[in-house]
Structure formats: C-alpha cells, structure tokens
C-alpha cells in the first residue's frame, strides 16, 4: 500500500528534490534535475522501482518529525522500546554533483537501525551494476552512477538487488550516509563533508528566510510556503517548476495524472507578486528573466509551459512498468498540453512584465518590444476558441477567463503607454482592442438570469477562475455581476467548504472520465474575492481552514478530498503555496489578493 501523499516531506538542492515518507523511506528522486528520470520511483510503483529506507529495525512511521526552523532540513524521530533515534535528511546546495545526506543520531538508549537502498534508474526500470570499492558502494547503469558511503563506515551487503546495512547507535553517536550522483563517464566528484554541509545548509536557509518581510498571522505557514517555492526553483535558470512530481492523481484510481516537473507561464504573475510582496526581489527578477528567455522567438509559437531552461519539446509518453500511485494509471512523463492554444497566457506574460516595471525590477530593453509583439499576435488570435487555463483535452471553447486575460494584456499595455510617454506604441489601438473584448465578454460570457459569468460562451457551467475577474481589474469587486459570480461559484462549485475548479464529472468540458478533488488554489482565490468584495471575516475563516489542510510539515498538494480528508495531485504544488502567500498578504499584509 502507498502511503498518503500528505505523509511525505520535501528535501532539495535548488536543482532537484526528493520526497521522504514518515517511515523514513525516500520514495521519489529525479537526478540530476527535476525533470530527469527518477532513480527512486516507489511513489508511483513499489519498492522494487527504487527507494531508500533508513529507520529503526522493525519500526513503522516516525513518532514525530519537523523541519528545523526556517530551513529545508528534515528531522524525523522514532521512540522505540530500546531508545530514541533521529534521522536528519537534506540535500546540500550543490557545487557540482547532487548529494543526499542522511544523518542517524542516537538520542536515548541503544537503537538498532536498518537501511535498505534500491537504486532503479530510468524511472524505476533499470537495475544498476553494483560493486564495492575502497569502502564505497558504487552503482552504474548507462549514463548514471552513484556512490554511497557512511561516516563512520558501517557494514553493508548486497541482497535481493539492494544494498543493506544494520548497525546500532548509542546516545550521542552519529552515522552519516551520503549518496552522490554523477555521469557514469566522469570520475567521482569531490566528496562533501556531511556535517559541514548540514551547518552550511541551515545557515543558508535561515539567512534566506530571514529576508521575508511578512510579519502577520500565520507567518510560519507563509515562510514555509516561500521556502517551498524556493525549493522548486531551478537555480541555474530561475525557472520554477509547478511540482517536483509526475502522475500523482487528481482522483485515486483515475486517469487524471500529469507531469508537473515543468514551468508554467500562468504562474508568472502570481509568483512575481508573492515574491515581490514578501521581499524577494532577486528571485522575482530571476523568474522574470527566465520568462523573457523562454518566450523569446515568434509570438505565434508561444507555449503555455517550458522546460527548466526554456526547452520547448516536452513530449508525453506513458511508462507501463509503473502501476501508478494506488493504481492510478497511466503514469505519464512529459506533457502534451505544452502545445495547446491557451489565450490566457498572453495576458499573464504581459501582466508579469507590467508588474515587474511597477515594482522597480531592473529594466530589460527588449521586454517592451516583446510585449508589443505579443499584443499583435493576440489581436489576430483572440476571437479563436482555446483550451483554457485548465488545459482541457476536450473541444476548444470560448472560455471566459481566457478572454478576460486578453483584456488584461490590452489593458496593461494601454496603462503603460499612458503612464510613460517615452514608450513607443499606439495606445488608441490597444484601447480599442480592450473595449471590444470587454464588451464581448459582458455580452456573451454573462448569464443575466442567474447574475453570474459562465465558464465559456453559451454555457451554464461555472469556473472558479471567474473569481479572478475583480483581481485583474476587469470589473470592480463591488459590481453586482462580480458579487453574483462569487456567490454562484461558491454555491455551485463548493464542496464541504472548499471549491472545485469546475464540475468535471458532470460535463464533457475536459474530455476525460471521472472526477477530481477540490482545487486548493481556487479556494484561496475565493478568499481573495470575498475580501475584495468586503466580506473579510468570511475570507479569514476560509483562509484559516485552508492553512489547516497543510500536512504536519506545512506542505500542500494540488488538490484536497474533503470527504476522505486527504491530499491529491502532484506534491508539493507551487500554485497552492503561491495562493497561501498571496492570500495572507492580501488579508494581513496590505497586499493584493492572489
């Protein structure tokens, strides 16, 4: 049986990340990058697909665990009949090669600890050749190689295509394990000292967290969300992945299983807003610069997502040897949605560039030229149906949110030209486009009888993305149509106090069978909309509820099942944590909703 998604914690080195369960098993890790093939894939299969467990012999889940203050260093502790032991897991910020460090420390008594390492390269399918040399366990398969060592050395042996160890720690004793990856054709990289690395990691994370400007309620949850966003940042380029996992299901046993180890343009504005408001201008600038590089080229070829370095080809395929999390198949690698037409991303890119200018980020001379080129393309395309922000795999439609974001692109361009006479461009041209889009949305995307905007033109279906209408300024928050939309969305998409993004199981809008859980960022959007429309008490109550859905170490997945009371979808999810930060800033920090 798979452990619940919320039983996992995240460690990472700003280039990749691993998930560690409550029972001390590292069940997911892709090396050397977030989007590389997994060498531990038990999360989506079983132990034979790769894992690394260290825990007291015969023990189950840990007694307690937590991150060390303001860091991504994880402590898990077990109380046994023979004593207590702590395992500290982290990944040092790498110099050249990625390392996973696991430090076993005796806290009380004398505890026997058992370790089992099963490396399975290429998403859990390739068993490496193992050898022992100079006290190291070396694994090699094709392009991948790892070196395992312990300090002090403990006895290891091979059995059942795994590497095993068993040793005893007394109170005050420590044993550190270091697993280092490198390309198999290169010599072994320099060794890291596990204890120096631990000290440096704590210092680096705490210095970074100390820059957070937010001082309101639930500051610990906000800082943890910001740390999570930082952990999902690919340091060499500044890109932020949506999640470090693939194919964790939106419905247990269902087919809605997607690869999120890429960078989505639609996250751009909300991410920039959260980082800037919290005091992280360097990270915001790195994300903005990644965005500019990724979308460079012909605006007709704008994609909704890109690889960590801005790669455009993200071909989607299935891996049949992985049975899926709790039988949720298929397991997918890559994402074909990269080539969908989603008009909203034009608005999100332009809105991000506008936010960057208003916030005083260092100007990029080509950014304005790019914006004008995007607007020219959008002027030709905006009347086309698209797949919308939820990346539906059904027919294209005239999604209202997509059209609203077209309006945003035109509006931000008009504002920039009005505020800065040195910018070149025809404000009247984009003002005309803005007015045309606004009129069409209000006429064709609004149901006057029900007093609500709808998911797409002519539809009776609703969409949680409609809650962003006041946030982006399309209509003021006290407009009766906005108030009516907020109430309608909450009534029709509400599920045990949270929001679905749309009623997937009742319509054919997304072209997929089955349903899904409540979408966490949508519930944060509802809190924002309630606050903007003057219902701050309700907004704060909802926010308190949402914060309470985080797991024991403060992490949120993409979705939540309020009936089964468990998290669903890829984990941890950047969008959910962006929502938490943005709503906290809006409610308690004087920021805008997000």
TrEMBL record:
Catalytic activity: alpha,alpha-trehalose + H2O = alpha-D-glucose + beta-D-glucose
Domain Trehalase-like N-terminal: 3-140
GO MF annotation list: alpha,alpha-trehalase activity
Biological process terms in GO annotation: trehalose catabolic process
Organism: Streptomyces formicae
Entry EC number(s): 3.2.1.28
Family classification: Belongs to the glycosyl hydrolase 15 family.
Protein name, per record: Trehalase
Domain of life of the native organism: Bacteria
